[in-house]
Write a structure and sequence with these properties.
Oligomer: single chain
Mean pLDDT: 84
Helix content: 25-40%
Distance between the termini: 56 Å
Structural class: alpha+beta
Shape: globular
Low-confidence stretches: 167-172
């Protein structure tokens, strides 16, 4: 058996969109969308994220069959507390946005779960268990995955994926 992690191609797009939309359908965190409208809204949203230049998707291919994917934004930022002098004045605490990988969605087919494919997809997307990252989508399976693999620096920050990126230094 040969397992390969590779960048997604246009031919992989239907698998990614269908898997993302269907597996997120019953997640509490999927938001407030009536089921008659869910398919259309979710597909538009997923395609919008995949079309962003900052989004990359990695697929796991096992003997020619797609086993999963990870869509991530490697140019995302997350706020962190810093002390800085502003205009030569005294040191003040503020917030500075730091680069971090944001996992938009991670999916592994049921038949391939618990074999390390999710961890491999995260690593191929630039995430390591000990390092900081954020994630935008929350599912019960995802929570179980994060606990089992002790991704201790992962933070659920869905709003970071919803709003335009800014990198101001805010002082208080």
């Amino acid at each position: 058996m040969t397992l390969l992690y590779r960048p997604a191609t246009a031919a992989d797009r239907a698998f990614i969109v269908d898997s993302w939309v269907e597996s997120y359908r019953h997640a509490h965190a999927a938001g407030f969308s009536p089921m008659p409208l869910y398919q259309r809204h979710a597909r538009e949203s997923v395609n919008w994220y995949l079309d962003q230049p900052s989004t990359g998707a990695i697929v796991a291919e096992l003997d020619g069959m797609l086993a999963g994917f990870c869509a991530a934004d490697r140019t995302a930022t997350t706020p962190g507390r810093v002390r800085r002098r502003v205009d030569g004045g005294p040191l003040k605490w503020g917030t500075e946005h730091r680069p971090v990988t944001m996992v938009l969605y991670l999916y592994v087919k049921d038949a391939f779960r618990h074999h390390g494919i999710g961890v491999g997809l995260m690593a191929a997307s630039g995430v390591i268990p000990e390092g900081p990252f954020t994630y935008a989508s929350k599912t019960p399976m995802g929570d179980e995955f994060l606990k089992r693999h002790q991704f201790i620096e992962g933070r659920w920050r869905p709003l970071d994926a919803r709003f335009p990126k800014t990198q101001p230094l805010e002082t208080k």
